[in-house]
Amino acid sequence: MVGAFGVFVLAAVAARKWQLRWGADPREVTAELAGDDLVTEPDLVATRAITISAPASQVWPWLARLGQARGGFYSYDAWENLVGCEIHSADRVVAEWQHVEVGDEVKLHPDVSMAVAGLDEGRALVLRGAVPMGNAAAPYDCTWAFVLRDRPDGSTRPVMRERYGYTRRWAGLLIEPVEAVGFVMSRKMLMGVRDRAEAGCASNVAAQRDETTRTEVVLPGSPAVALLGDRIRRGWRVSGIGLAVAALGVTALVVRDAHARGDARQPGRRSRVPLPGGTA
Question: Which of 6, 39, 128, 194 is the most exposed place for a label (fewest CB within 10 A)?
Answer without folding.
Answer: 6
